[in-house]
Write a structure and sequence with these properties.
about 625 residues; 3 domains; two-stranded antiparallel sheet; 6 strands; about 5% strand; metalloprotease; zinc; metal-binding; protease
Length: about 625
């Protein structure tokens, strides 16, 4: 997934968006000022020349700008809760974590597997139960407060692979920073539309005054009419901007989904079904235009000017260059025959999980002519890790209090001499009931392979962020104390605590999640050197090997430069925290160089250990980047 190139494009889209909306607002202010001047400003005041009323234009400009700005800010602040607020605004309902309904269970499984593979916490999951069209969106300020919402049509009509393709498409928006831009678009559109709403109120007021004796009602009525006309014209052009920005990102998200899952059948199959089925991707919810730019497919039948996505056939052809429109006719006939057949459930390795809608079998796979696509071992490993987790643990992480016990158990040592002290830490922080739950979970946690530890924490995250803030802080303090019980902190312990602390903090204050930085790599040379040294030392058994791995990384980041090797300090955790915060301020292209340099260090010995993989996952999360494919 070319995350960094996409993120750079999103930055460019953001700049263009600011410029275009600024021009639109300037045009709106100028138009309103012209109407105010015609209605009021050209009249002489108390025998003075008409120019003495120029102050009206200043007042008018300030009022209009203030109205648009405050309305936009109000709308953005109303979405401060992040992704779940956006999902609930369109009538979506959360999918229970312990659901046993086959379609919803499959949805949760797919989203959890994609989250594990991407190295991000599991998002909140929502369903638009009354929507028969095939559509979905991701919303939020960051991965830690993201929500993924799908329509009932996705569950009724898509196979597991197709659903996976749609979810991977939405995760690409999560990973490349589209979601924050989408929320800003919602606020700006609302701010401009408010002018028309205010205009209607002014007309009502002006109409009342027209029947009075002051004779000024006609002028007020004219201003109200102007607000309505200019407000809707401004909204028209704002919708054009919204559509243009959205179209530029959707094709990239399709390509990213293919790179992520390593197969085109899923997402192209979903697009074909949108083209075939009568409901398509349309939404019935009243405020669908507000979220149109963040959806998987078009929210309604808009003209090409207002289309927020490229044409369906164009999207399919980009994925499958050999695709022909007549293939849709054959696929439609196949689906019609399948609808008359008995239900076909289950996929390989997923007994009892619905492959598509009841009464529908997997559609025939059309030839993939986009070229050979290499297998994606990381994605397959994520699915295997998820499916192999003990049922007791996956059930426990679905509820806040039991998820808390699981995470504490992950930080508990199996060394007998450390356990009495660690038990006191848990009992002092949470009481004897939680201690007993932790001891029960500890036995299950010991059966986990090391590679499943951070994925289990990712599954626990949605439940953990439901805990009260004070309890979250107590949890983080207890985790710190548990991992320091033996006087040192190893890489596994550091990764667990760092990841949970960062993600819980971002989930509590989503709007404060760091945005893309502006630093260049040379200005962060010391931080790059330290992080590469810690990664190299963590993956090598001796200093000479660590030094060689570090040199490979530094030559990748700073080719041709002579930089002196410095082993990581004994107390490396604090310096690493500061270095990661420093690197998070880099430009996307500089972050790409850092990640690729770290990969050079990790692969120096020809193998990737669990500790190295976990540390890379935490570094990527700290830099707000996906784990590289």
């Amino acid at each position: 997934m070319d995350f960094f190139a996409q993120q750079a494009r999103v930055r460019g889209s953001s700049r263009r968006l600011v410029v275009l909306f600024a021009l639109a607002v300037i045009a709106i202010v100028a138009a309103i000022d012209a109407v105010v001047w015609i209605s009021l400003g050209h009249h002489a005041a108390d025998g003075e020349p008409a120019g003495s009323n120029l102050s009206l234009l200043v007042i008018s400009s300030v009022v209009v700008l203030g109205g648009i700005g405050l309305s936009s800010l109000f709308r953005i602040m109303s979405l401060a809760g992040g992704g779940k607020t956006v999902a609930e605004s369109v009538g979506a309902v959360p999918v229970p974590p312990d659901t046993r309904e086959p379609q919803l269970r499959q949805l949760r499984n797919v989203i959890e597997e994609v989250a594990i593979a991407a190295g991000v916490p599991v998002p909140d999951i929502y369903l638009m139960a009354g929507e028969p069209g095939i559509n979905a969106f991701a919303a939020g300020y960051s991965a830690s407060d993201a929500a993924v919402c799908v329509t009932q049509g996705c569950l009724d009509n898509l196979s597991r692979d197709e659903l996976q393709g749609v979810i991977a498409h939405e995760f690409s928006h999560v990973l490349n920073g589209d979601m924050r831009l989408n929320i800003r678009l919602m606020g700006l559109l609302f701010g401009i539309l408010v002018l028309a709403i205010v205009g209607r109120k002014v007309i009502v007021f002006g109409g009342g005054r027209r029947s009075g004796r002051d004779g000024g009602g006609g002028q007020v009525w004219m201003i109200g009419l102007a607000l309505i006309v200019v407000g809707y014209i401004g909204y028209f052009f704002a919708r054009l901007i919204q559509a243009a920005v959205a179209r530029s990102r959707e094709s990239l998200a399709d390509a990213s989904a293919v790179q992520f899952t390593r197969q085109t059948d899923g997402i192209s199959g979903a697009l074909k079904k949108i083209a075939i089925l009568s409901e398509g991707s349309q939404l019935q919810v009243a405020n669908k235009q507000e979220v149109a730019h963040m959806l998987f497919g078009e929210a309604g039948k808009f003209s090409a000017l207002f289309a927020t996505h490229p044409p369906l056939l164009q999207r399919i052809h980009a994925l499958e260059p050999g695709f022909r429109e007549e293939d849709l006719v054959r696929l439609a006939a196949s689906l019609q025959r399948a609808a008359q057949s008995p239900p076909a459930f289950a996929t390989a390795g997923q007994p009892g999980k619905p492959q598509g809608a009841p009464g529908m079998v997997q559609p025939p796979v059309l030839p993939v002519l986009a070229g050979a696509i290499a297998a994606a071992p990381r994605f397959q490993r994520a699915a295997a890790v998820h499916q192999a987790m003990p049922a007791t643990l996956t059930a426990a992480v679905q509820q806040p209090e039991s998820a808390l016990a699981v995470v504490l158990a992950l930080a508990t040592s199996m060394e007998a001499e450390l356990q009495p002290g660690q038990r006191r830490i848990v009992a002092d922080a949470f009481g004897d009931d939680v201690l007993r739950a932790v001891q029960t979970m500890a036995g299950e946690v010991t059966t986990l392979p090391p590679i499943a530890r951070l994925p289990l924490a990712a599954l626990a995250f949605p439940a953990l962020k439901q805990l009260p803030e004070g309890r979250q802080q107590t949890l983080l303090a207890a985790l710190d104390a548990l991992v320091r019980a033996d006087g040192k902190v190893d890489l596994n312990e550091y990764c667990l605590v760092r990841l949970l602390r960062m993600q819980l903090q971002e989930a509590r204050q989503p709007r404060r999640t760091p945005v893309d930085g502006s630093k260049k790599l040379p200005g962060c040379r010391d931080s790059v050197s330290l992080v590469c040294a810690i990664v190299a030392a963590g993956g090598c058994s001796d200093e000479a090997s660590a030094r060689r791995a570090w040199l490979l990384a530094m030559q990748h980041a700073f080719p041709g430069e002579a930089i002196e090797w410095s082993p990581p300090p004994a107390a490396w955790q604090g310096p690493l925290e500061r270095a990661l915060d420093d690197l998070d301020g880099l430009l996307p292209v500089a972050k790409e160089l850092v990640i690729q340099s770290l990969l050079s260090a990790i692969r120096a010995d020809g193998q990737v250990s669990v500790e190295e993989a976990e540390l890379l996952r935490v570094i990527c999360a700290s830099l707000h980047c996906p784990v590289p494919v």
